[in-house]
Design brief:
Layout: H1 36-65, H2 67-81, H3 83-94, H4 101-110, E1 120-127, E2 130-137, H5 139-147, H6 150-171, E3 175-181, E4 193-199
Antiparallel strand pairs: 1-2, 2-4, 3-4
């Protein structure tokens, strides 16, 4: 039996390492029972579930109230309601402290929004005063391009870039976000968007 620590959370049992959950039902199952490789799959599962949920409610709002209402809802949720709380959740669980560009890049890296199931994103820190986020693949860009809605894509991407810039300012008021690339793209082989982070005084 695994022991409970003082907070009532099950400790890792070294005698249990599940490669998946194809075996018998385990009534006291904990994520700590899974192998490291399976925990990665659990994360990918959560990312896929997260994005399918976003796409489901977005489709519902768009079908019932129109595309403008859907984009307004996306903007309200990601730029306002979930902006600060989302960052606090990431910082709490990943123990990310500080308010410099390195801390900002860590928070962006761990944001489930950029999960690899739907996105292909790279994060670079060329120096302590310079960060770069590059979205090589984005589901919103691909969907709106396929629908032939470049104007809607512009509005959608503007809201996304505002959310990213807002997060940088919340991290530190002197961090400046520069949009290095943003849709519409000239070619589907181009990157989707790219943002640079520097300090206002540097």
């Amino acid at each position: 039996m695994a022991k409970r620590d003082t907070r009532g959370i099950l400790e890792i049992d070294p005698n249990v390492e599940l490669k998946d959950y194809s075996g018998p039902f385990k009534p006291d199952l904990r994520y700590s029972d899974f192998s490291r490789e399976q925990l990665v799959k659990c994360y990918l599962m959560a990312c896929e579930y997260f994005w399918d949920t976003i796409e489901a409610w977005s489709a519902h709002v768009a079908e019932k109230y129109g595309m403008d209402a859907m984009i307004e809802a996306q903007d309200d949720i990601w730029c306002k309601r979930m902006a600060g709380p989302g960052e606090r959740i990431i910082r709490k669980w990943m123990n990310i402290k500080g308010n410099d560009i390195e801390s900002l890049m860590k928070v962006l890296q761990m944001d489930t929004v950029w999960g690899p199931v739907r996105f292909d994103v790279t994060f670079d820190l060329p120096s302590k005063d310079h960060g770069v986020l590059t979205a090589n693949r984005c589901p919103a860009v691909e969907q709106f391009e396929a629908l032939g809605l470049p104007d809607t894509l512009r509005v959608f991407c503007k809201a996304c870039s505002d959310a990213i810039a807002g997060g940088a300012k919340r991290c530190h008021p002197d961090i400046v976000t520069t949009t290095l690339a943003i849709p519409p793209r000239k070619s589907k082989d181009d990157i989707c968007c790219k943002f640079g982070f520097t300090y206002e005084s540097k």
